[in-house]
Amino acid sequence: MLNKNVSNQIPIELNSDQDEFHQCNPSKSDSTATPGIFDNSNTSKILCSQLFEDHLNQDDDEFDSLNQQLKDVLLTDNYRPSLIQAFSADMSSYLSHEKLTKNSRKMQQEYEQANNTERGFVFNTYIKNNIVILCLDKYMHYILEKIIEIGPSSYRNIILDQIFHSIKKLISDLHACKVMQKGLEIMSLSPQESISQYQNYIEFILEDSDFTRKLYTDKIGNQIYTKSLEVFEEKNLESLLQIFDKYILNHNQFSLELSTDQYGCLIVNKIIDIYPKLLDPKTKSTANEIIMRTIRNSSCLIRRQYANYIIQQLLEKGQENHKRVLLDNYLIKDFVSMSLDKYGSNVAEKAIVYAYPQWRQKLWEEEVSVSECSFRKLVNDQFANYPIQRLYENLTIEYRNEFIALLNRLHDSHFLNHHGQIVLKFALSNYNVKRFAQKVNQIENSKTTKLQEKNKQIQQVFEKQQKIQQNQYQYQQYLQQYQMMALQHQVLQQYQLNYYQSPTELQQQQYQAMLLQQNMIMYQQQQQIISPQFQQFSLNQEQFSFSQQYQLQDQMNQQALNNYQQFQCFNKGNQYQQE
Fold this sequence. Notes:
It contains 29 helices and no strands. The protein is mostly helical. Among the domains are: 80-191; 206-331, Leucine-rich Repeat Variant (Alpha Horseshoe), CATH 1.25.10; 446-536 and 544-578, no CATH class. Helix 8 (141-150) packs parallel to helix 11 (174-189), helix 16 runs parallel beside helix 19 and helix 28 (505-536) runs antiparallel to helix 29. The protein starts with a helix and ends with a helix. Residues 1-39, 73-79 and 528-547 have low confidence and may be disordered.
């Protein structure tokens, strides 16, 4: 019994999950109900662990969703930066040109105002892996130019490196070529920030190969060379000019001529444009040789469809020494035949407009009006009538009268065709308009001169009135001062007379004689000083200097005081002798 009781006192250990699970399992009872899902112990364990894992996974999903929401606040909510909004804008091809242009400009504006963090996020997210594609895009290539211009140098170098790896594909594209030109411009300003990139582009541009020779006359490719002529420093510019020198009016094994090509002539025009900016003597000499070669071949170039633009460029932007050689030695002799040509007539017009007056006078006397036959040929030609009209506009009045007289003579003789009639109408209308303009200018000039004279007269009258008022005011002040001084002097004399009545009669006579003598001397000095000044003073005729009058009165008072002191000393001496 004892053992039995002791054994009954030992508590049952619930060490097993299975035993604990069986105690609360209703299927172990004697119930006849359908077994539940917890009837199998192994199944119940699996379900419990799966529920626990599902709960943990649900918490993880909620946590991830919250993190994603916090992360997407910068990108999707209303608080995200405007730069990212601009780059997230729809740039699909079905949008209108105005909408795409607006979005592109919005990107550029927002990039200028964004901070470095936003610029870095945009570059790494939208640009870094799509540089070549963006270069070829009509609207997105502008943002690459903006990054190259104002972005960090590291972003610029990444863009330029990726473009250089595909340069043979991109250099003939209109939009990608613009990105390369912007890169060249910025790198030339700060070459230390992009040393390797700048050197790669220089080596490619200075490479004289079959591929680059094709680019000289390519519609898009030659733009990188005209830009290089503009931004290269003297050393690289000299090398580039030496390459072009071989293909401009020179015989070469490749039969390449830039001056007569539609796009190659742009390179020659750029050389003429940059010539005044060159400082290195060697570089300037090479450019000068190219320009002089074009001048010597001007008679051929002015009749070519594209080469005539080179001569026009010389007339518009060339140096004075080049223009004078071209006008005096070549164009004036060839003016008639040049004006009769379809392309040469354009050069003839520019020559008349940009030439100096002596050249026009010489042209009129020696080439145009030398005979009626040559004048009639020029006036009636379908191309030459345009240079003749420009010539009439720039002639002096004397030569215009001769011009109209020749036209009237041809008109009376019925030698003017349709083009000649146009020149006649132009000349007469221009003549009448200029005469009317001259009359109007004369009338306006006369009006202005009359108004100016009236204004001058009014100004003079006003100045005179001011001077009169000023003189009157000064006269009143000086008069008051003079009256006060005269009054003081009179009081002083009266005081002296009263004081000197006590001495003897001899002493008074001596004093009066001495005072009279002193007054005579002072009066003479007064007349010498006052008379020339008094004659000048008047409000209408004379002016008087009261300042000198004041000084004179002060001298008189001082002299009277000295006389008084002398007489007092004399009186004391007599009293001492009497004693």
